[in-house]
């Protein structure tokens, strides 16, 4: 059943691509219905009820072309509040559709609905959608396939087929109970029981040989794998035995192609890679493996998910019942930071005439953000499971964000921000220290609902600095509604005198999600239009329209 299901998904993708190809060059409005519901699913010999879209896990693929308008009607038949984020979509004057609960909208309550409307501008490749409230994204997620405009090809040879592959995590327990327990105790959440490929854990897990993703290929053909890391917590190494992968796109943006045996993909990131099958039938199958990269001192899911790459046999009648050998790739060590930095150093924007890298050369606002784990004191007479009986607290510039009771964008637009948020988020750490050296004695962080207010059209420079307060580890950062250029990164503390000389301002990779290196820093630059809390521009076409009439109420 697993193999049949996988082949069906590939066929559906090919059929959808053929349908889009026949629709002409004009941009159209593509409409989808997402029915959020509970569905009974069995994995690892354990059955539980999970939240899904349209009863599918992973959810349905959203197809569109660059330049299209998209309307997705989300009807919430689940028992939970819900919102959907279109991860990586440039929300240009469509911030009401971005989806994070209590940021751009109040959640869709059980029994309610909301229509997300947005345009796809200057993007083509692979993105994804997911729930953006609590931990519901563990099962509420799916691919977004964005094709070039009709008549416009890829800047590389067209593949024979295109196949979305979503990495995920599976918990036997209810994920809402997992995060609820972590928030109550202040400890780290219980680790997942398995990783998944397109929702399937594969043969390396107990009771899961029948739940294996299988990719059928023809000798000599080239396939484009649309990779998406939908895992909640972990960066993942990925490799296919005895095959190389050519990276041609990340986060729906073309890059200068390069070939690797193993790639790294952080939570929230996407990548299109070309896989060329062997020229003749090899008489073997090959594992596709993914496992985590981490430098954390805490617990993590140290397991491996496997799918199988199978070749069409030119003589299937003579091969009936024949067992072929299966080969396995060698993945880097779990903490192989060199493998990660070597891979990320290869990423370069295509920077061609058709796809230029518009790197801002002048900067209007500069920020330096420290990111890492600190602590909150345990409540009086409480029992907490963080360091020394405290509670873990993630923070940026020592501020741990507190969700408001109403959406930030709604309160800003209505001119009722007082008591909802403060616009004094610190540009720099208020108390500088040796960020990757000896940590300070006081590890407590403050709480706050603080935002940065920026003018429309500002060019922004941001350094994200990891800290070793409770151990250095990599942190993924996703910028909603816009992209940025990764012009530099390194290890240790950022040096504002010497490091800028190493910046790549010609063809840096453009992304919407980046991993801040463990014990290091990443330098980003972008021209900001509609991200963070951005004030309207002076022209009518630079002003956010009023909220939709069906925008959910808190």
UniProtKB/TrEMBL annotation:
GO cellular component, one term: apoplast
E.C. code: 1.10.3.2
Plastocyanin-like domain span: 36-149, 161-312, 432-525
Cofactor info, note text: Binds 4 Cu cations per monomer.
Molecular function GO labels: copper ion binding; hydroquinone:oxygen oxidoreductase activity
Any Gene Ontology biological process: lignin catabolic process
Signal sequence, renumbered to the chain: 1-27
Catalytic activity, as annotated: 4 hydroquinone + O2 = 4 benzosemiquinone + 2 H2O
Subcellular location per the Swiss-Prot or TrEMBL entry: Secreted, Extracellular space, Apoplast
Top-rank lineage group of the source organism: Eukaryota
Main location: secreted
Keywords for the protein's UniProt record, in alphabetical order: Apoplast, Copper, Lignin degradation, Metal-binding, Oxidoreductase, Repeat, Secreted, Signal
Cofactors (names): Cu cation
Leading EC class: oxidoreductase
UniProt xrefs under InterPro entries: Cu-oxidase-like_N, Cu-oxidase_2nd, Cu-oxidase_C, Cu-oxidase_fam, Cupredoxin, CuRO_1_LCC, CuRO_2_LCC, Laccase
Role description: Lignin degradation and detoxification of lignin-derived products.
Family designation: Belongs to the multicopper oxidase family.
Protein name from the UniProt record: Laccase
Phylogenetic lineage: Eukaryota, Viridiplantae, Streptophyta, Embryophyta, Tracheophyta
